[in-house]
Amino acid sequence: MTGAGFDVLTTGGRRFSDGRLVRTRLGADPRELALPGGQTVKTSGLPSGELLAARRASGAPSVTVTSALAPTAPAVRAVLPLLGMLLSVPAVRRLAVRGMARMPLKAVPRPRRHSWGHAVVTWPDGAGREGWVRAGDGMDYTADIAAETAVRLARGAGEPGAYTPAAAFGPDLATAAGGVFILG
User: Fold this and answer.
1) Cβ partners under 8 Å of residue 94, min gap 6
2) Bridge partners (DSSP) listed for residue 20
3) For the residues of the chain, what is the DSSP string, one character each?
4) How confident is the model at residue 141 (pLDDT cuts 50, 70, 90)?
5) Could you tell me which of 126, 103, 124, 130 has the C-alpha nearest to residue 33?
6) What angle separates helix 90-102 from helix 74-87, to the nearest 10 degrees?
7) Which residues contact 100 (CB under 8 A, 6 or more apart)?
8) What is the pTM of this model?
9) How would DSSP label each residue in 138-184?
10) Which residues of 106-117 are buried (b: 16+ CB within 10 A; e: fewer)?
11) Distance separating alpha carbons of residues 109 and 35, to the nearest angstrom
């Protein structure tokens, strides 16, 4: 984790509620999701670029983003605000960054064969829909999305302005980068 990575701990979480971006506790909204295919994964809230992308793509007034990278254990989630306050002190933050930089990394097997994106949309009338996107390794998929976006922009595709990749190119971008949609 870099100094920038510690920002997540010091700033807390975010979500959209009734159209407004509001602060939340890091690790809020813990959930256990049943993945297509039978495995389960625990997730909780953390600030992420997907929050703004989901809000813009859906137009939904309330959006929450959770991740399997966020802590889900109750004891860890309970100490996150204290840890965030400590890491907001510059000397403590520098010490923590140096300590993390010295930690040896150990290769571990992937917990699942696929990475998953998940969305639940509920309309004002109460009707809802759930969907998934399945990809290989999540970090590789993110790089593939960026590369496909760059190729399309280099070819002159897209409109002038500022857009998320999905808003600029639609769901075809996800499938072109190797994602598979599964609608529930």
Assistant:
1) 3
2) 17
3) --HHHHHHHHH-EEEEETTEEEEE-TT-S-EEEE-TTS-EEEEEE---HHHHHHHHHH--S-B--EETTS---HHHHHHHHHHHHHHTSHHHHHHHHHHHHHSPP-----SSSSEEEEEEEE-TTS-EEEEEEEESSHHHHHHHHHHHHHHHHHTT-S-SS---HHHHH-THHHHHTT-EEEE-
4) very high
5) 130
6) 120
7) 1, 2
8) 0.76
9) HHHHHHHHHHHHHHHHHTT-S-SS---HHHHH-THHHHHTT-EEEE-
10) eeeeeeeebbbb
11) 19
Cβ atoms of residues 27 and 73 within 8 Å: no
pLDDT of residue 111: 82
Amino acid identity at 177: A
- Give Cβ neighbours of residue 31 (< 8 Å, ≥ 6 apart): 42, 43, 44, 66
Per this entry, what is the length of the chain?
184
Dihedral sign from CA coordinates of 83, 85, 88, 94:
negative
Structure confidence at residue 155 (pLDDT): 96
Q: Best-predicted range by mean pLDDT among 23-37, 95-109, 137-151?
A: 137-151
Q: Which residues pair with 129 in a beta bridge?
A: 121
Cα–Cα dist 163/160, whole Å:
9
